[in-house]
Amino acid sequence: xxxxxxxxxxxxxxxxxxxxxxxxxxxxxxxxxxxxxxxxxxxxxxxxxxxxxxxxxxxxxxxxxxxxxxxxxxxxxxxxxxxxxxxxxxxxxxxxxxxxxxxxxxxxxxxxxxxxxxxxxxxxxxxxxxxxxxxxxxxxxxxxxxxxxxxxxxxxxxxxxxxxxxxxxxxxxxxxxxxxxxxxxxxxxxxxxxxxxxxxxxxxxxxxxxxxxxxxxxxxxxxxxxxxxx
Length: 230
Known about the structure:
The structure is a single chain. The chain is mainly α. The protein has a two-stranded parallel ribbon with strand order 1-2. A two-stranded antiparallel ribbon has the order 3-4. It contains 7 helices and 4 strands, in the order βαααααβαββα. Helices cover 69% and strands 6% of the residues.
């Protein structure tokens, strides 16, 4: 087991479905970034995207067209969040400790904004959005702890990572714009008549998937560490 004396000496694992498209796109964007743009500028851009998402979701209560504003925010958030580290590596100006700290502190804050905004939108229940936030933050904590303990910064699980999460959010926004409120009545035997919200089901499904990745990975890691750390 490779424990870290310096947590910055880690291996980054981001094996995602959209990787073959995302990686060359980010390299091109980094190579063509203006000379005055710095990684910090891109970090601030990603934060701006998070606030745009929050505002878009809240304003969607006034008109569903604001779901497109939230979708635009996801693009801005991806652009800034993905390019800060990419640009630093491209220009060989990495600041590993500072970068690790700022990137992941801001990422956690942005997820709170995003899921809170989703919960304030008209079609997703706030409790369900909070459940998804809990799942995301639990998995994030696991990622950071494993980075410090075993030197593996793994942000993709089952070929899914932050980029796929944003893509799914865009698909959800598109569905909510075109189909609006959807309530599906269901006869559930002794439970009587239930009303299902497909958007809650979608977000709830993501929540369960995040919790599954957290529980299975945490359990396997605990068993492995118990055997090796004697």
